Q: What sequence folds into this?
């Protein structure tokens, strides 16, 4: 598991090293509930289609490239299959 710090950038190819899938797990401590989402961006770094916004009410993209597996109090987990 790799813990990223604010503003840190990494190349997924360097991180995955041939793995078929990976998870993104987000944990937080707060006195309120957060709704976390994933945005599938196009080549212009824009969300060109709302179907590629993954969140509690839309847990998968149409091609299932991003899936929200867990969305619990203070933790969310996304699957990015290859």
A:
């Amino acid at each position: 598991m790799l813990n990223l710090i604010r503003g840190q950038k990494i190349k997924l190819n360097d991180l995955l090293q041939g793995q078929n899938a990976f998870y993104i797990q987000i944990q937080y401590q707060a006195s309120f509930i957060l709704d976390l989402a994933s945005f599938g961006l196009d080549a212009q770094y824009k969300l060109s289609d709302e179907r590629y916004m993954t969140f509690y009410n839309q847990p998968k993209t149409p091609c299932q490239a991003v899936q929200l597996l867990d969305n619990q109090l203070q933790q969310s987990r996304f699957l990015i299959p290859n």
Notes: The chain has a mean pLDDT of 88. Residues 19-81 form one domain. The longest helix spans residues 12-16. The first strand starts at residue 21 and ends at 27.
